């Protein structure tokens, strides 16, 4: 039975997250990660080809963690309950993970993706496509249609509204309770009642 690695990939990515938040994504280098984690440089290069892959893997790990809960909340049978649960999830996840939330909401995904290895870029596309399909599925269940107007309403209510509310309070604070309630009310006005109750 092999010996457990002293420094796991997650240990190194946790160090990369601290560096990115303190000094910006350009400061995430293999040597900086090694120094911050206490790992030998060889351990870093054994897992990652370089700084671009470190940052891309950090982004991918974070977006997968966030999207898994987002998709689960949105999949509830009752579409209004699903919308409420999804909005609550965005607030709760960001409240529990302020550093990761700041990474997702303030860093440039396009720039990270442009520099990432193709394998990581494909994984990121796959996960983003799955999240988009979950919104499209909710839109169809709620409105009975996925045309442009209905899909735009869903994205605005389920993504743009809660993300925008949370982003304004990062990195130094957390949204107040009334703001979450205001987002839910605004979202309900945008999406209305599900088609089965009209």
Automatic annotation (TrEMBL):
DNA-binding residue intervals: 29-48
InterPro entries per record: Homeodomain-like_sf, HTH_TetR, Tet_transcr_reg_TetR-rel_C_sf
Signal peptide range: none
Record Pfam families: TetR_N (PF00440)
GO MF terms, alphabetically ordered: DNA binding
Keywords from the UniProt entry: DNA-binding, Transcription, Transcription regulation
Name of this chain's protein: AcrR family transcriptional regulator
Organism: Gordonia humi
Lineage, uppermost ranks: Bacteria, Bacillati, Actinomycetota, Actinomycetes, Mycobacteriales
């Amino acid at each position: 039975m092999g010996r457990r690695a002293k420094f796991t990939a997650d240990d190194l990515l946790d160090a990369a997250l601290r560096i990115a938040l303190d000094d910006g994504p350009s400061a995430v280098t293999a040597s900086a990660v090694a120094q911050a984690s206490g790992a030998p440089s060889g351990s870093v290069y054994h897992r990652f080809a370089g700084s671009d892959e470190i940052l891309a893997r950090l982004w991918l790990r974070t977006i997968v963690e966030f999207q898994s809960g987002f998709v689960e909340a949105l999949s509830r049978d009752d579409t209004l309950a699903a919308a409420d649960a999804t909005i609550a999830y965005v607030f709760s996840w960001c409240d529990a993970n302020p550093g990761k939330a700041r990474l997702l909401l303030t860093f440039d995904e396009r720039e990270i993706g442009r520099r990432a290895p193709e394998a990581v870029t494909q994984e990121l596309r796959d996960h983003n496509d799955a999240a988009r399909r979950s919104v499209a599925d909710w839109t169809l269940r709620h409105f009975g249609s996925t045309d442009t107007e209905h899909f735009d309403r869903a994205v605005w209510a389920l993504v743009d509204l809660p993300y925008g509310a949370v982003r304004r309070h990062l990195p130094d604070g957390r949204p107040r309770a009334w703001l979450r309630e205001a987002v839910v009310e605004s979202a309900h006005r945008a999406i209305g009642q599900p088609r089965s109750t009209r």
